[in-house]
Structure formats: structure tokens, C-alpha cells
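**User:** Here is a favour to ask of a fellow structure person. Please take any protein you like and set down a full record of it. No explanation is needed for now; the record alone will do.

**Assistant:**
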Amino acid sequence: MTFLAYLLEKVKENHDTGIPLVRAMVLEFQEDPVCGFLDRQYMLGDRYLVAPVMDETGEVMYYLPHGQWKNYFTGETRQGALWITETVDYFTIPLWERVTSD
């Protein structure tokens, strides 16, 4: 499924159910105590983790919850339950896709 098709599906889900497209981390990861305190990253639907860069140097620190994650831009995969600190350029934002077995 393309990214645009995914967004359209989730917008329809929002319309039908009221579940927001932009979600606090704790909404998707209720069992992870770290996610209850994350206020500088969010889930886009139930599949994509977005970590906005809020520092002019491009440095960003974010948490990948338990599970397998794939970087949307590079294809790199990581096993979650870890903190990541990286520096990105003006044209990049950390965007990770949750890998599922379906």
C-alpha cells in the first residue's frame, strides 16, 4: 500500500470511528510505560512513527517502542524498545514504519 493510500484509509477510519489520524504514542502503546511521557513524537495512524526535529542543529532524540521498525527513507530496520539520537538535514524527518507480519 502506498503512503497516500494509507493516509486516505486512515482519514476514512477517523471519519467512521473518531480515532484520530495523529495519535499520542500512548494510544498505540498502552503497555509501554515510556510512551506515556513522550510529547515530542507521535504516531501517524497505527503504522508510522514521526519524530519532528525541534532543534536548529537538526539533532533529534526519540524512542522506538517494542517491535520491529523500518526507516521509511533508508530502509534500515531496527528492533524497538530503544532511544535513538541522530542529526538530520533540513529535508529529512525521522519517519519509521512499524513492521507487521500481515
